[in-house]
Specification:
Layout lengths: L5 E4 L13 E4 L15 E3 L15 H14 L6 E5 L6 H10 L3 E6 L2 H10 L4 E4 L6 H8 L4 E6 L3 H7 L3 E9 L18 H6 L3 E4 L9 H13 L7 E5 L4 H9 L6 E5 L4
Parallel strand pairs: 4-5, 4-7, 5-6, 7-8, 8-9, 10-11
Antiparallel strand pairs: 1-2, 2-3
This protein binds NADP nicotinamide-adenine-dinucleotide phosphate.
Length: 268
Amino acid sequence: LMVGGTVGKVAQSRNPAFHVGDFFAGYWGWQEYAVSDGKGLQKLDASLAPVSTALGVLGMPGMTAYFGFLDICQPKPGETVVVSGAAGAVGSLVGQIAKIKGCRAVGIAGSDDKVAWLTRELGFDGAFNYKTTEDYVAKLRNLCPQGIDCYFDNVGGSVTDAVLPVLNVRARISICGQISQYNLARPEPGVRPFIYLLNKQSRAEGFIISQFMDRFPEGIAQMAEWIKQGKLKYREQIVTGFENAPHALIGVLQGENTGKMLVKFAEA
Ligand SMILES: NC(=O)c1ccc[n+]([C@@H]2O[C@H](COP(=O)([O-])OP(=O)(O)OC[C@H]3O[C@@H](n4cnc5c(N)ncnc54)[C@H](OP(=O)(O)O)[C@@H]3O)[C@@H](O)[C@H]2O)c1
């Protein structure tokens, strides 16, 4: 069974706490039906938000953006924040949270359409397409004239190498993901980062979102409030049909998604 976060509707129940038709979020993986004893499930209120948001902005990716950015980067108003993987489920939220916190937000993404979405619709101050830009360092210096105070890294590799020389003193790097490295057959040679951290008295910290699990209610409440206030936008890309799930996953690794990629197995 392929693992994965899911939203499901109760079809049959012998548990008095679970009623037919109720929605829950859980980790049932890629299957159309699952049996549960009810442990570890999150009940969803479909009247408060579309249930799909429990897999995106109000679920694990949203909490990854919220805690991975705010707790680890500790952004201050006026600072410059750079986000890689900026048009994805996590990155698109990080840049918007940076704006809410009074920062300058700059995104790095893999198509001109994504760059346009970030700057025209989500309020990023600048963005560039890493697939058509030759000199990433020069581009970053141009888009970040005051240097980089916070870097939220979703991708690693040569994009991240280019951020290092542009860091300011006491910069903070949140290492969220290294998607450019996941499928490599052997490790890629790259820049050695510690000299940059040393010279700029800076900090890089990895995290796994489960470490913040007990604080999810706080993050969900705040993200829901920002959505209600019109300060936070999110996009879902929904592929329909169980048979299309493998292509959807491969598509994420190839940059086909904007915002959160979801696969719908059945009509709610
Ligand atoms: N630490 C944690 O607990 C945690 C939790 C959730 C997610 N993550 C990580 O956070 C990152 C973002 O996750 P997500 O769910 O928001 O995914 P996502 O950004 O919605 O989708 C992945 C995006 O990565 C980009 N990408 C793919 N291959 C790339 C490459 N070789 N170089 C640069 N960019 C590449 C693509 O966009 P482009 O078109 O821009 O290339 C693609 O759309 C992932 O690395 C994921 O593993 C970590």
